[in-house]
Here is the input.
Amino acid sequence: MPAPPIRAVEPVPSSPVADTPPEGSLPAGDASAGSANSRAGGGDDGEPPARVAGADEAPPGHAPEDVAAAYAAAPAAAAGAPGASWRSRRRARKALRSRLRRRLTRTGITVVLVVVLVVGGAVGYAVYRLDQIQRVTVKGLQKVASSGAHANVEDILMVGSTSRCAVKSQKHFQNFVKQCEQGVNGVNSDVVMILRLDPNNHRVSLLSIPRDTFVPGARAGGLYNKIDAALADGPSQLVQAIEQDFGIPINHYVVLNFESFANVVDALGGLDMYFPTQVFDNQSGLTQMQTGCVHISGLEALALVRARHLYYHYDRKTKQWLGYDGSGDLGRIERDHLFLKVLAKAVARRGLGNLAADNSLLGALAPQLTVDTSFGVREMAHLVLSFHSVNVGAAPQYTVPIINDSQPYMYKGYSYGDIVFPAEPQDQQTIDAFTGSAPAGVKLRPGSITVSVEDGTGSPAATGATAAQMRALGYKVIASGAATPVGPISETTVRYSSSSHLQQAEKVLSDLSGTVVLGQGPTLGGADVTIVTGTSLAVASAGSASTATSASVHRVAGTSASAGDAVLSALVTQLAAVSSGTRSALPSTDGGALGAPTSATSGIPAYDPRGCPTGAKAVK
Here is the structure.
């Protein structure tokens, strides 16, 4: 993505942490993010978060002095009156224990949680605090498997909502509150991540889906759109789109809003981040002129993780930003992954097993966290107990590869702006690395699957070629037809009628490459699977498909921590197969607008913020 024209930006050197360029001096093409209070450097007067009952406070109506008083009276009660018999003393001790039991019951959660905290880190206060979490009904969630290779493994969909109306704080989020009052809400998902917890191998992994990925079923009724638009139709629609289009079963749903994210950081007392150079994003509110190790607040952290129009390295002589990141959402995802590592370290250092820190952290998070109704407190506590010792900073983190469309995308006569397409085989191999195994469908025999081919590009010759190639691979091609092209560029959809045919679709997908995606919907001619051809499609050649498939499965199978590394070698294998002619590419009709597939993992640019070096002292 080319950088917008850069104009002079003169920072105000009054703040060593986050100097803000003067109004009217922003890079051309950037719209104002709102009032100064909505920026990273403005509106934060350092006031601590509101006090909440917890570590050193009993819940309302349960004074901790009751227990202390009971213990203070214990020696006298145990001794009994002067001259009392041993039976009297025994009855007195029993009465004391009974009174203590009643008082412990009244103080309940406070005392019990102390014991649990000693044993299980932050789990104790979860029992108290997690009752404050908001619940939402989400349809389509899958039950956690109780047997098989993925027994007890959980895939949790984590969403960063852009809802302005979910923000309640007038003080720090005035711009968002004002937008809500004006009817501008924007309920999309800024961040779409899937957290995989595998207790069998004590493994944690994270997969991000770029928000602009164009997929079928993103909107209700099977309509195509960007994946981030699904949340506008509710969480059930987003879950359905991920399960149907990527084949990933979702067990639970968690959503954070802007305010809850910032509050978590503030509850930790802020975070220390290393800034190699100055960075700026007017649209997210990020302005960081101090370099080196810097202590940032919740608002500054929020501006950082939302930044996707990032300028870097400010020249004070010319008063210009010399660099523009240009990676958009992919760059933001990488920065989010880096930030999560820093956050995880801070939580592990301050928030686990420390009563005051646990209470502050959970008190900031729980009231503004929303989860599905089936995600119970006991299950959450069990997960924390199972994974609290895992080094989250070392967990594999992937991003679903995409193919960029360099032009604003036209679909059925409407412009969808900047979008990105799924990329095969890279996407499936990344998902395989994330889950630790290939989908079950790739083991099916082509001869057991009926296929129909539908022309989606207005090219009968290309449709006929696709049908012939699928027959050569052994598939039973039973029908062909034509559909009205959706525009000059389109993705290929591997359509299956219901979840009972997902495995057949996975097998067909494994023999295709290009801008290809799964999608659930009616099939042509009653076939198990229909291929709706797009403008960039390649089909595996006969005689090479089974070998290539088995090699791919072998490389990404397994659940060890090193299984994630196999995605890179698998990609190299597949790309080599395409260049050596083992896949037959149809003539592309995208006019050169589509780029090369991105990587599931990538290096960190030298200018991106990251964790501070060990022993470094942060500037506040």
Summary: The CA atoms of residues 334 and 604 lie 8 Å apart. Residues 4-83, 99-124, 545-587 have pLDDT under 50 and may be disordered. The radius of gyration is 28 Å.
